[in-house]
Specification:
The chain is α/β, with parallel strands linked by helices. The protein folds into two domains: about 220 residues, Alpha-Beta Barrel (TIM Barrel), CATH 3.20.20.60; about 40 residues, no CATH class. Helices cover about 45% and strands about 15% of the residues. Strands 1-2-3-4-5-6-7-8 form an eight-stranded parallel barrel, surrounded by seven helices. Helix 2 links the parallel strand 1 and strand 2. Helix 2 packs parallel to helix 4, helix 6 packs across helix 7 and helix 9 packs parallel to helix 10. The longest helix is centred in the last third of the chain and has 17 residues.
């Protein structure tokens, strides 16, 4: 276990020192505790909670009040890691005043250390206003369903052409990254970076460039969905895909064993 207190300035120093930062997307107390005990550097409360935990059709259905519940739980679980919380869809799209009110709630009520703003390059005035108010911004940019059209790229999360498309847009992405840094962003979340654009952007800015889906060793750090690391979800049942653990199959096996013990009149374990 790492006892090192992680702060945003330390994450930035890690970039300068060539040390990789690593975090997970988590939404609950126990998962965050495990990440803390494992010595990870940061935890990100993503709006992915809607689809992955609550059965929503897409992350746009997650509300500010809902994500605040998750943020508070995660904050209670760690005082060591940096806590990032997503700004849910809505406040930014409604304008500067709405975005600022939501940001204050996420920091004040939720206890977040920084706020992740999706498609941040489309909202430089909001990033600048938040930074000037002393609210650290984890600025997301790159290829997402919302930004694909901006680059004239047909988006497909499973398409290996995404990395090629991003390499072709590398110059534009470097410009956006520098602009976000100038606006006051403390870190970048580069989605579907690819080795060409990812390396170019990482070298072009002084703030950490971190990636989740479509990221790689060319970035300053990585963030992975905790459920993916742990193999939680129906897609992992019977899956041969390489992961760090297969909780899904193990859980089913445990429930089957429980049922068998009950039906056989055995004493229940634990």
């Amino acid at each position: 276990m790492s006892a090192e207190q992680i702060t945003i300035p330390l994450l930035q120093q890690m970039k300068r020192d060539g040390r990789k930062s690593i975090g997970v997307v988590a939404w609950d107390f126990p998962t965050t505790r495990f990440a803390d005990l494992a010595g990870l550097d940061f935890v990100s409360i993503g709006d992915s909670v809607g689809a992955n935990l609550w059965g929503h059709d897409n992350p746009l259905q997650v509300t500010l009040d809902e994500i605040l519940v998750c943020c508070k739980a995660v904050r209670r679980a760690t005082s060591r890691m940096v806590v990032s919380c997503d700004m849910p869809y809505g406040p930014v799209q409604e304008g500067l005043s709405s975005a600022m009110k939501a940001a204050v709630r996420i920091v004040k009520e939720g206890g977040a250390d920084m706020i992740k703003v999706d498609a941040a390059a489309n909202h430089p005035e909001i990033i600048k206003e938040m930074a000037q108010a002393g609210i650290p911004v984890f600025a997301q940019f790159g290829l997402t369903p919302q930004t694909a059209l901006k680059y004239g790229i047909p988006y497909s999360a499973q398409n290996s052409a995404a990395a090629v498309a991003m390499s072709e847009a590398a110059e534009k992405l470097v410009e956006e990254a520098r602009m976000l840094e100038a606006c006051g962003a403390v870190a970048l979340d580069f989605t579907n970076s690819g080795p060409v654009a990812g390396k170019a952007v990482t070298e072009a800015v002084k703030i950490p460039c971190i990636g989740g889906f479509g990221g790689g060793p060319w970035l300053d750090g990585r963030v992975r969905l905790a459920q993916t690391v742990l193999g939680i979800g129906e897609k992992w049942i019977g899956s041969k895909t390489d992961t760090y653990f297969n909780t899904a199959q193990g859980t089913i096996d445990a429930f089957k064993a429980l049922a068998e013990d009950c039906r056989a009149g055995k004493q229940i374990k634990g």
